[in-house]
Amino acid sequence: MVKYFGVNIRDKVDGLELTEDNYIKINPKSSIIKGKVYTESEINKRVTDSLYNYDLNMNYFSSLAQDGFTKEIENFSSTNENFKEIADLAPLSRVSGYYIMVLDKYKQVYIGSSQDIRVRILSHWSKQKEFDRLIFGRKEDSILSIDSFRAYDTTRIFVYPTDNYIKLENDFINMFSKEFVLNRTSGGALLDLTEAILERKTRKGMV
Fold it and tell me: Largest Cα–Cα distance in the chain?
């Protein structure tokens, strides 16, 4: 175990930062269609498409201006004083509200909400994104999932503790320029996968 942002997290054998080598964990069983098992050719195509999308996203992140990203964070912080930067997640156990994970290396933010901020952020860090959900939409414009990144990719965290933790999520997402946001769907309570697909966000200009 290692301590990060004041909490213990499990050290992963393939590292606590996202790399091309740890991005994909092949699972032939579908997480979308119950009982489906992917063929070898389907697996190979998914791997190829996922790596293509990964490279597009990485090149896109590199093209973004650091000063523009810095100003986005500063502007948001100055107009949303309820959000405070924190260095310790431990006191946020069983605390509901909104959170912003900042990935400075990639010039990206992820805005979320939860009835337990600590648990939710830890779940982002511990997950391995499902093999057949790496691409959400088309390989040419799918946004990398926040669950594909690792704990050390999150360099700053801002939180707004509140019992009313769903209503404003999409408003906060829209306060950032789209190029700096990792959210794949609109904020708020989505009913199911169909609604998530309908509310899907894409990354324009990667190809």
Answer: 52
pLDDT for position 204: 81
Which DSSP helix (H) or strand (E) runs through 103?
strand 97-103
3-class secondary structure, 29: strand
Q: Which DSSP string do the residues of 111-166 spell out, in sequence order?
A: EEEESSHHHHHHHHHH----GGGSSSS-TTTPPPPGGGS-GGG--EEEEEE-S--S
- HSE-up (13 A, CA, CB side) for residue 63: 10
Q: How many CA atoms lie less than 13 Å away from 14 in the CB half-sphere? A: 13
pTM check: above 0.90: yes
Coil/strand/helix, residue 110: strand
Please write the tens of the pLDDT for every residue from 5-41: 999 999 999 999 999 999 999 999 999 999 999 999 9
| Residue 54 backbone phi and psi in degrees, to 5 | -60, -50
